[in-house]
Amino acid sequence: MERISINGIEIAYEIRGAGAPLVMIHGAQGDQTMLAGLASDFADGFRVMTFDQRGSGLSDKPDMPYSIAMLADDTAALMDHLRMSPAHVIGVSMGGMIALELVLRHPGNVRSLILGCTTAGGSKAIPIGGEAFQKAYAKEPMSAEERARALAEAAFSKGFLAEHPEVITSMIEARRSRPIDSTALAHRLKAALEHDTFDRLGKINCPTLVITGRDDALVAWQNSQILAEGIKGAKQVVLEPAGHCFWLERPKESRDAIAQFLAAQK
């Protein structure tokens, strides 16, 4: 793990593999470890960068207002500094929101776009929320066990958790080793809930894959349909059964869909 000063904060990142740049952007409550398996899968053919965003993981967590645009600017600056532009960009959940702002604000940094389990935001989107969201993303401090269990129940389909109860144990250990900063999380969630790119989707010109799980309880799969319809030429893949963390529930299908898309960009 390396650290570098970007836009006045320290950002933790990791680069593996060699080849064309591939940047992976994690979700709201996660950090770069949530994409470690996917990063390893593609390190044979790509120079893959994962990183902890402002307010996450091992990066700095300033107590200040955040915005998706700010996080996109952080990402662009990090990419430029590490000579990772232009890159194929994968963003999941809140990371997909950041990827959308990245391609809109810094189009030269993005060679192709993969949007996972995310939303354009705005009044036309199906709102993020509901009981699962309220439990998993509670702003008040929670124990590692409470937060991990709530997030697991929101992020995975019931069938998957029934077959893989070890996922909850793994997530508890992750929260113990990398505790959530409740103040930073509140700033990040506010940024996510204010996200709105719907009216700008038509400005995205790079090849785009939109992928999600049919059983997503956090970001309804229909939001991916809205993205696919709004971005010219976008391809859509809906995996089922699969919840929010589709790449962990359906790893082979997810890798195959992403690999096929990336292969078409060479």
Overall body shape: globular
Main β-sheet description = 8 strands, mixed
Mean pLDDT: 94
User: Which fold does the CATH topology refer to?
Assistant: Rossmann fold
Helical content class: 40-55%
CATH superfamily: Alpha/Beta hydrolase fold, catalytic domain
Unreliable residue runs: none
In the CATH hierarchy, what is the class?
Alpha Beta
Q: Based on the structure given, which CATH architecture is correct?
A: 3-Layer(aba) Sandwich
Q: What proportion strand?
A: 15-25%
Structural class label: alpha/beta
Number of domains: 1
Strand order within the widest sheet? 1-2-4-3-5-6-7-8
Number of strands: 8
Q: What is the distance, rounded to the nearest whole angstrom, between the alpha carbons of the first and last residues?
A: 29 Å
* Tally of contiguous helical segments: 11
Topology pattern, helix = H, strand = E: EEEHEHEHEHHHHHEHEHH
Based on CA atoms alone, the radius of gyration comes out at 17 Å
Q: What attributes characterize this protein structure?
A:
single chain; 266 residues; alpha/beta; Rossmann fold; eight-stranded mixed β-sheet; 11 helices; 18% strand
Write the layout of secondary structure elements.
Elements: E1 2-6, E2 9-16, E3 20-25, H1 36-42, E4 46-51, H2 68-81, E5 87-92, H3 94-105, E6 110-116, H4 130-136, H5 144-155, H6 158-163, H7 166-177, H8 182-193, E7 208-213, H9 222-230, E8 235-239, H10 246-249, H11 251-263
Parallel strand pairs: 3-4, 3-5, 5-6, 6-7, 7-8
Antiparallel strand pairs: 1-2, 2-4
Helix pairs in contact: 2-3, 4-5, 5-7
What does this structure look like?
The protein starts with a strand and ends with a helix. Helix 4 packs antiparallel against helix 5 and helix 5 packs across helix 7 (166-177). It has a single domain, classed as Rossmann fold. It is of the alpha/beta class and 266 residues long. It is built from 11 helices and 8 strands. It has an 8-stranded mixed beta sheet with strand order 1-2-4-3-5-6-7-8, sandwiched between helices. Strand 3, helix 1 (36-42) and strand 4 (46-51) form a beta-alpha-beta unit.
